Amino acid sequence: MIETTKPINAYCTGSMDHGYESGTSDNNSRRNSFALKDFVRGRRFTMLSRPARPGNMDSLRKASCQVSPYHNDEEDNDDIETPAPMSRRRMSVPESGFQKAEYAILRPTRDMGSSYEIFTAFDRHTDPYRHYMQSLTCYDLQPTHGSVLLFYGNLKMRQAVTALSNNSHQAAVVWNADVPGDIGILTLTDCLTTLMMAHRGQRGVAEMTLNDYFKATSAKPLIRTTAETSVWDAARVLCLNRVRSLPVFDTDGSEGTAMYLISMRRILHKTVLKLADPSDSFAPYVRQTTLIQKKVGTWNDIGTLTSEATCKDAIEFFLEKKLSCVPIVNKSGQLQGIISKQDIIRELSRHHNNYLQVLTAPVINIIATKPRPVVGKPEMTVLEAIASLVSTERQALIIVDAQKKPVAVVSYCDIMEYIQNCESSHKNSVIANP
């Protein structure tokens, strides 16, 4: 048994369906302060039943605490005097460190009960988001229901583009059956690149196999990670390579199986938003700092397109600037809408007889069929920006001023890079507010 007499702040991550949108009132708060001994006293620590992790990972971190509603102190004396081995507890820190902890992160167990497991604990000098992401693995963020689109290397580009546009997938893992372990990833950018290659006269690109396409475009080797990689490290890989998603494999090496594609959107949604707290003192560099204060994102030379632009103009913008969306403005420079790569890929499905027809389609016709875009304001906090981004399918948030003119673009990578470089800011805020 682990006991401590001092109060400890518990942040319950809740079910995966809850998020920042639930609000931050006292009634909806997932934060509670309690004496930790009242939580763990008399509980029986047992192994958690859940789908097996790859390899020997089942024994690493999957245990939970359960409690009977008919708790009796006298009957449970044996459990109190004989503590369960640390290997059977859901602990990310030693007992000695846990005794000194001021915060704990709890999450529901995966059994049929309503009990919580102690996931990790830390003191107020520790950056909560950094600590939480370093404690989580990519396996922990695996969706309950999901799929990975897998293409063989001998599939033709025309078929691959059709499959992506018709199934709303962002990317597909490509496996070369002729060379075991030789894999790549096909993205929306590749689809748009293929379209422009055909427009410029390379009509044979539609019948080119994926293997030949990767050779012709000198595609980089697949960037991948494993289930046991920490979420923090996976986010660093995404930021460093400026990629949208990262294939997660069950094991390292060429024989591994793709489990899912982890994205920056999922990381921020399942970590930062899950630890949303009504107190602004919790990680103030995220909850109090505004976008304009730290210039999070791009605040100079914001590229835009006019309402007279075509999809061809938008595609050229995406490929040249390496961006995923672009604001559409009127003659006065005011925002009219936002068009993304995904919007153009969807438009392709309407021109299945001749994909090149999409190049002449006006962008104003595409944005006219979409709801009013979600935009941000310069005074928006970093946390509010994350919540706004997660509520959309886009990879970046357009920031507008009082005249509704775009002044900045903030992407998931911009926010994550800011968080990963703010450990000193958190420590300074703790020192300033002891």
Identify the CATH class of the largest domain: Alpha Beta
Note the beta-strand portion. 15-25%
**What's the overall average pLDDT, rounded?**
76
CATH superfamily of the largest domain: CBS-domain
Number of helices: 18
Distance between the termini: 31 Å
Largest beta-sheet characterization: 4 strands, mixed
What quaternary form is this? single chain
Query: Helix/strand/pairing class, anyone?
Result: alpha/beta
CATH architecture label of the largest domain: Roll
Rg of Cα set: 25 Å
Strand order of the largest sheet: 2-1-5-6
Total number of strands: 17
Summarize the structure.
This protein is of the alpha/beta class and 434 residues long. The chain has helices spanning 36-40, 58-61, 77-81, 95-99, 128-135, 157-167, 188-199, 210-216, 231-241, 264-270, 284-287, 291-294, 311-321, 341-348, 363-367, 382-390, 412-420, 423-432, and strands at residues 7-12, 31-35, 44-47, 63-66, 103-108, 116-122, 150-152, 171-175, 183-187, 225-226, 245-249, 258-263, 305-306, 325-329, 335-340, 396-400, 406-411. It folds into 3 domains: 7-123, no CATH class; 150-269, Roll (CBS-domain), CATH 3.10.580.10; 279-432, Roll (CBS-domain).
